[in-house]
Amino acid sequence: MKRNLWHQRLLLSSLLFPLVLNAPLSQVAAQESVTDPVVETTASQLEETVTPTETPSSEVVQAEDQPLAPFTKADYETSSATQMAQAIRQGRVTSEQLVNWAFEEIEAKDGELNAMISTRKEAALKEARELEDQGQPFYGVPLLLKGLGHTIKGGDNTNGLTYMEGTQSRSDSRITKDLKKAGFIVVGQTNYPELGLKNISDSKLYGRSANGLDPQYAAGGSSGGSAAGIAAHYAPVASGSDAGGSIRIPASWNGLIGYKPSRGVLDQNPDRPNLQVVHFPLTKNMTDMVGLFDFFGGSAYPEIPFDPKNIKIAYSTQSPVNTDVSPEAQEAVHQMVAYLKGLGFSLEEVAAPIDGVSLMHDYYTLAAASGSFANFLSQQKRKQAIQFDEVDPTTWVLYQYSQHLDKKDSELAWQRIHEQAEKMKQFRQNYPLYLTPSTAFLAPKLEDPLLTADHLQQIKESHLLDKEALAQLVYDQWLTALRYTPFTQLANLTGEPAISLPTYQAEDGRTLGVQFQAGLKQDRLLLAVGQLLEQAGQFYYQKPSVSAPSTPEDQSEEAGQDSIDESMESENPSPAPVDDESDHEEAAGQDSNPDHSTSLEATETDSADKDLVSNDSSEATASDPSDHQSQTKPLKSKTLLPETGEAPINGFWPAMMLGWVFVLWPSKIRGRK
Description:
Blueprint (H helix, E strand, L loop, with lengths): L1 H18 L23 H5 L25 H6 L2 H9 L5 H19 L2 E4 L1 H10 L11 E5 L27 H8 L3 E6 L11 E2 L3 E2 L15 H8 L6 E5 L5 H7 L3 E3 L17 E5 L3 H10 L16 E4 L11 H16 L3 E4 L6 H27 L10 H10 L4 H21 L5 E5 L15 H8 L6 H16 L6 H6 L3 E8 L5 E8 L4 H13 L16 H18 L82 H13 L2 H4 L3
Helix pairs in contact: 1-19, 5-6, 8-9, 10-18, 11-19, 12-13, 12-14, 12-16, 12-20, 13-16
């Protein structure tokens, strides 16, 4: 037994070594300073040595003299976007057929899920028929587009506000253009909470989104409709935005992969010190995730060789705001700790050195600009201030709080945030990776209130409170929701990358992810961890049973040994294995709720929409491993990147500028109550 474990650790160390290199998957690591042949192996080469346990029916190796099997509706539900693009090129299916299947799923299920706020069937079918193959990595694949901040011409552009109903975008946002360049066909827009402010998707305008795995539970937010749509097989990929967890929270609750890129690594997420909102799609497998990362600029990021024996992982199940953490969330982390220790990693239980309560107070101070922005849109649209009954209570209390804030409050909040970010930078010298639950609890019931009756009454009367009392009310009213999701906001405020991986499923079928967070611009390390765990069969849908789970110790040895045995026995190499606002983003918002995607995400408006000042606010059922896991090596086609030379406009700054302008302007302009 000891000898087998020794061999396991030795082999996985040699496999992981190249995997964690910060290198594009399409390149061979050949740095002059590295002479060890193992180190010179890249992640893509590793993928060719590690074969997943099962192969989707659509990817069965065919003899050269036999025709390829047709690509079926069942394949559509279980295949990755990468596989779908390959099937189109092989002539096994057409893009038009894939789009028709997408709408079959939407029409059959969305009456219950409410994941979509608009669809564009005829336009999508026309685009699918006319799309030319120019080497796009996701050629002809259906895509869901987040309805907040990710605009498409003719689509809804309301920020989820009732008084903006009927407002349409007059052009595509930048992320929409980029996703189309990648080959995707947009089939519709997905649901989100008002201004992206909450960790559930339940606006007054669009209603509540249900979980794609079990509709009696919440989808999460603010990219809730996107996550539910992928989980329910509407499409394999959906766009999202994240200012405090809006990608990772719904990914955790819908059994998906949710990745929040580093500030400044990808084209649409600029390197600005006060930027917290990022844009990136959600996926159900690592192949698509890595392919999207490369497409959006990650392929140009420099390689960083290092020895995985030096990777020390800190982990914690302690809430940074001192709220309780469920047994399921703790178990998810402890299972992962045991598994990683079984592979030879060094792990230490130590919480991040930050003051979570102070951090969230500053977070909400910044989020107050969302309230001002909502009032600004109302003044522009109909020449009157917002009213309590027509907006979400969260929007209302932020509006009232914003009346007491000025530029100095924002500057001081960021100063304190940067001080805590510096502590995390020092923390990274000892712990390159930080492991926590993605969410502290499983998804709540769809009807569960995340605001108490007492807080609702206080919010209704919040115009009577002074600045200090309002600051405390903003924090307190969010605490019920923040209790579910206290782990995600740190990465947005520090700018660090984080990824939620679907490793845990409770006995009732609900899923919960574990979150890995790395140092600034160490995104390749996070992607490598995701690939390692997927290839080792550690995602929840790859495990044999949730009703009678093995112990963490058994799992760490058995799953690791299985993945090694399979990689040694297999003769068939495994296949190697995004989003900013529009070019004319206008406005505002910030993730400020436990999901904390506030109007920071409400940030995108095409130029033609500016005359309305209506911005686009900016964010599976899988029992079969093939449902989430891609087996197909992507075509080595030319990467189509956005034109360079102009710094992309991100939604956070326009949002904050507009919000704070109305904080600072005279009270009669702001519509002071």
